[in-house]
Amino acid sequence: MSEDLYDKDDLERGRLLFAGPVTFVMGAVSLETLPAADRPEVAFAGRSNVGKSSLVNALTGRKTLARTSNTPGRTQELNYFEMGSETDQPAYLVDLPGYGYAKIERKRVQAWTRLVKTYLRGRPNLRRIMLLIDSRHGLKENDREIMTMLDEAAVNYQLVLTKLDKLKVAERDKMLNKTKMDAAKFIACHPTILATSSEKAWGLAEVRAEIGQTTRF
Question: What pLDDT, on the 0 to 100 scale, is given for residue 115?
Fold first, then answer.
């Protein structure tokens, strides 16, 4: 959770990007309904119970910006949020539908894959997918399937470990190192693995800084 990878300018840009206005724009269900590709875009993806909504809320400092649900996998829209203003190099944050909920796994993964493949083909302004991984479990088979799909689509993506506070101190570095080794097998995966806890606010500055770098014009 060190911030050594980012200089003061990176950290400040990331902070300002998320400290400014962050507003819900729309929920899109098809390529035709997506907003104009007129600004940089970063998307968040992950298993249905990975803590994606909690991380988006923590990053933006808003408790209910992204909806959390007691029924994982319910949301099946690409939820668009606008960050910044017209004069501050605005960007889109996109909350992708979750995948891999056990009770409806096959149907949900198929629907998620169709929607996301369509999205990937039609978004030239997409700078990166932030792929969230539950640190208690590491990469699961359907995470690897999604990573393979992203590799084949030549989409830049980065792994973000969530719920790090749920691990014992001795387990954290072990999980981080294992994830790095696993990720090295995937050609489009960013080499830096980010580690976070929404509950403890760990690693949020690093994620903001990374997105700030990624969305820079």
Answer: 79
